[in-house]
Design a protein that fits this description.
This protein is an all-alpha fold. The chain is built from eight helices and no strands.
Length: 159
């Protein structure tokens, strides 16, 4: 019996430690552009979609709680705060999925550029929410943003 070849984690898993713990190890060759990993790319897409949907659900829950405690302006503020986290993360996940499907695999530089775009879009969305929504409740906005940002922790306890 031959010893099993150890699979190395992708660049993303080294940079984002929770991604390495969240995804099963057999999904990692799909991130590296391995031809044998093509069927696994679809499962990787499901995991990314699950994280984004969990963030969206956490945003909805915080928005309902904020609406019950502070009225409609707080509910809208919480919804905007959560979406300021969910939308850039969804676009970043789409970018990761596109790089996983490409034949060249994950490029560390494109990962860093995508991360920079995600941070810039988050700051721009928070600024737009503060600028355009006059009845902004800062506590609800920041609380929903933090809850959406840290909601992936729920998936860590799933295993």
């Amino acid at each position: 019996m031959r010893p099993r070849k150890r699979l190395t984690p992708p660049v993303e898993a080294l940079i984002i430690p929770w991604l390495h713990r969240t995804l099963p190890l057999e999904l990692h060759p799909a991130l590296n552009g391995s031809p044998k990993g093509r069927p696994r790319v679809a499962r990787f897409k499901v995991y990314m979609l699950r994280i984004v949907l969990l963030q969206l659900a956490a945003t909805a829950v915080v928005s309902v709680i904020a609406g019950g405690l502070g009225g409609m302006p707080a509910a809208w503020s919480a919804l905007l705060g959560g979406l300021c986290c969910v939308v850039p993360n969804a676009l970043f996940a789409l970018r990761l999925f596109a790089s996983a499907r490409s034949g060249k695999g994950a490029n560390p530089m494109s990962f860093f550029i995508g991360e920079f775009i995600k941070i810039a879009l988050t700051v721009a969305l928070l600024g737009a929410a503060a600028w355009l929504y006059r009845d902004l409740n800062w506590l609800a906005l920041i609380a929903a943003f933090i809850v959406a940002l840290k909601s992936y922790i729920i998936l860590l306890f799933r295993h």
